[in-house]
Amino acid sequence: MKKFSLIALAAAVAISSAVAKEIKIGVVLPITGAVAAYGQTAWAGIKLANKLEPTLKNGDTISLVLVDNKGDKVETATATTRLVSEDKVSGLIGAMVTGNTQQVLQIADEKKVPMIAPAATADKLLDRAKYGNRVTFMDSFQGTSFASWAVSQGMKTAVLVVDQSTSYSIGLARAFKKEFEKQGGKLLKELKISSGDKDFKAIVSQINSLNPDLVYMPFYHPEAALLVRQARQIGVKSQFASGDGVSNDTFIELASDASNGYLYTDAFDSSNPPTAKSKAFVEAYAKENGDSNVPGFAALGADSYYLMIDAMNRCADGADRECVNKEIKNSKNFEGVSGIINIDKKGNAERSIVIKEIAGGKAMYKDTVNPK
What we know:
Structural class: alpha/beta
Strand order of the largest sheet: 7-6-8-9-10-14-15
Distance between the termini: 64 Å
Order of helices and strands: HEHEHEHEEHEHEHEHEHEHHHEEEEE
Shape: globular
């Protein structure tokens, strides 16, 4: 009888092994290049999420195939095409900045592969997409939420600095401006920069003479760090703030002491984990990295992975791209690391936003704004 049981068990294991398969998810991120800090942070979250949940409920193994797009649009298109055509991935995660994410999205639609963007926030990103989705908020919510909050905190005048070379900055600036003025705030001036600029003397001089309550700079960390440093060097006392483009330790390192008091919007704060999954992930992250401070992009990276496999688990075959894409868009009250996420028919996420303030070289939780 015992011998028969062992034979039966071996047969069951053999059958299970034969049925279970490997499902690949392609990950397109900037691991090197100007915005490498974003990609490296998101990858840490994706990689840990995969380590914590490496299989589907039916036993299928999830393998990650990472490619470095170097923050470049051409590299992004080439890498994404290779993932789909050669690696035969069943899903895509990436990229980070909106411009690169649009390249992933275009190929995902052409090849009919479900994709999830961890951090691309442009409002119209998914308007014409069929296979695109995201776990982060849109610029309209990010910009309007912070503008309304700023006025409620007594910031009545503002100077807006826009990076005219990125759709991210233009979209976020537009949303902020509209809501700030709607709430009774006065926009003193709108100034323009371009990615790669390093000398902001003329810009900070104008800010100094205007002396606004708030300087809102919705662009990425390399330029934001340099600008705020140069502003503080000439004695500008205004409150500085940005969107999630400065949500990384590299910004603090580059801005140094000038980062103290800086405000920005983010998707997650590990000192206030909103879900049971958040708490478990923070604990796992601390064990893995020796630090319980989970960056917002790490949480969004993890949620991109978790949402993908959650949708795969709701399909008879996790490699069925059509089913997975449909189930992602059917996700309601999804419990992620960064909070509760609802995905609409276009693939956009409805979720909360966190406001943080940098103090003593660390990002500290300040407030949460929920969707109305």
